[in-house]
C-alpha cells in the first residue's frame, strides 16, 4: 500500500476540503491502488497523508461508505468494498441512472428479448388478461464490470409496437421508450424480499446456486397506467438497501 501523500488539497478552492478528500481517496480506489478487500490507512494516517483534520477525514469516509465503496468493521478498520449498489430513498430512475449516481460504470448484457404469454403475476401487475402477449427483455446487469443482478422487464405489447425488432443490447431502455413512444414514467412501486439464486442465474452472477439474493419487483406507470413489470435477482453481497428513518 502506497504511503505517499495522496494528493495536495487546495484550501483556496471553493470546493470543501471534505469533498476534495473524498475525491482523493476515491481516486486511489478507482485506480486500483487500494483494491477490493484492502484495509485503507487509519484515520490518523489519512489525516497526515491528506493534510486535513480528523473531522474532515471522517466526513469523507462516511460519504464513501454511504456510496458502497468502503465498509467499516469495528475493531478492524475500514476496507475497500467490491462493487456494491446501495439502494435507498431516491427518485424514479432507471438502472443506468442509478449506477451513474453511485459513481459506478454501468454495463449490461442482453440475454434475450422475446414475446411470451403473461403469467398470473405479470398480468396482474400490468392489468391485462393472463396469457396476453408481453415483451420480455432479460438482461445481466453490471456495475464496474462486475455482475450485480439478472433483470427481466415485461412490457405491455400494445404500448411498444415494433420494439421486439429493435437492438436493445445497448443504452437505457427508459430512454428508448421515451424516444420511440413518448413513454415517461410518473410513478413506480417496488417490492423487496429475500430469496435464493437458482442454478441458471447463479451461473450468470458468479455465485453458488442457493446463494442469498434480493428479489426486487417493480411496477412502473405513466398517465395511461402500468406499462412495465420488472423482476430482478440482485446479488446479496453486492446490493444493499439503506434507509434513513426520522422522527
From TrEMBL:
Residues 15-83 form the HTH gntR-type domain. PROSITE patterns: HTH_GNTR (PS50949). It comes from the Bacteria. Keywords: DNA-binding, Transcription, Transcription regulation. It holds the Pfam family UTRA. InterPro entries: Bact_HTH_transcr_reg (IPR050679), Chorismate_lyase_/UTRA_dom_sf (IPR028978), Tscrpt_reg_HTH_GntR (IPR000524), UTRA (IPR011663), WH-like_DNA-bd_sf (IPR036388), WH_DNA-bd_sf (IPR036390). Transmembrane segments: none annotated. This is GntR family transcriptional regulator. The lineage of its organism: Bacteria, Pseudomonadati, Pseudomonadota, Alphaproteobacteria, Hyphomicrobiales.
